[in-house]
């Protein structure tokens, strides 16, 4: 009887132990599941944060559109540079907030929570770089001098760089409206003229000529009443050079932006030499290790204090900066992009200044589009001096960039026809728009439309007789 009772007690104890072990396993499984669930929640929160950031930057990228009153070099500055830098900022942001931007080698007694704390602390605070063959400096100030202070702020720096690249074109778009010439609309009319039939083409070209004539007349009227001081203060608004001056200032803003960003980028990265881009290329070509050059080091040292039982203990741990592998390539590209765009922008600014300011350059440009007879050369020089000012020649060159030289030729020839007609010349001799026949001269629709517009607009009574022809009347209806 006693034996049976002891056996029953042993069975009950075994059952209790089995139940306890199952309960502990269940608790352990629940704990592991809870940890995994918390990790998933953290990752989802990171992904959500990055998605919001990328949506904001993505909407900013799509809002940036190229203008039609610019050159290709301008677009390299305000459009391509802005888009490229913002895409790089998105890439670094995704790596920084979704992945593990820093991983540290912690002592064995550290738990997972301590390890996570150490990595977060070292990422938020600055690390410092030490060569493999050097000891960790004991002096606090020496550690401060070797700190890497940039890797946390790279996405924000790039977003700010993109904003500054776009500011000069905002200035150009706002300031050129103050002049009598609406540059975007004129270029848009030229683009429409290049894609339409002859009748619509004639109307668009005449609209361009009328707009230019009106702006020149407005400048002459203001110039008669403006004082010399006012003419200087207005930056050529009454002299036909305001748009050109503002365009050159926009170019200078692009150059100044590149120079300032280049200088600030050197300070931000802690580079002592402005030739660090060439130095990194040399290191890559010769196989020099980054561990000794110090350019975007992949490993760094981090110091932090831990309070244990009332005592403060300092730890110095080694961390891997995964982001610096990307930062090196990105900033190396930006370095040489700045150099490339800066050289092109400086050269184009000089080109625009010379080719719009010098009268002989304006005459040479216009004469390429208007075949002249010997008797017209003197009048043509006067025409270029009075009508083809620096603003007009700038618009012609922009039209040529956006469309083709044929549109520029048509506009110039029409302006030349207007000038000759208003100078009381009896005939118009534009070789590209006149076809000679044995029985006389036949004028094309562009020329007819031009002179007919002059007759209606300026009440010029000495226009050729064909202005009243049925063909010409149908063009202006």
UniProtKB/TrEMBL annotation:
It holds the Pfam family Innexin. It comes from the Eukaryota. InterPro entries: Innexin. Keywords: Cell junction, Cell membrane, Gap junction, Ion channel, Ion transport, Membrane, Transmembrane, Transmembrane helix, Transport. Its main location: other. The keyword GTP-binding does not apply. Coiled coil: none annotated. Residues 13-32 are annotated as: Disordered. GO terms for biological process: monoatomic ion transmembrane transport. It is a multi-pass membrane protein. GO terms for molecular function: gap junction channel activity. It is found in: Cell junction, Gap junction; Cell membrane. The chain crosses the membrane at residues 153-175, 252-269, 330-354. One of its GO terms (cellular component) is gap junction. The keyword Transport applies. Structural component of the gap junctions. PANTHER family: INNEXIN, INNEXIN EAT-5. Belongs to the pannexin family. This is Innexin. It comes from Strongyloides ratti. The gene is inx.
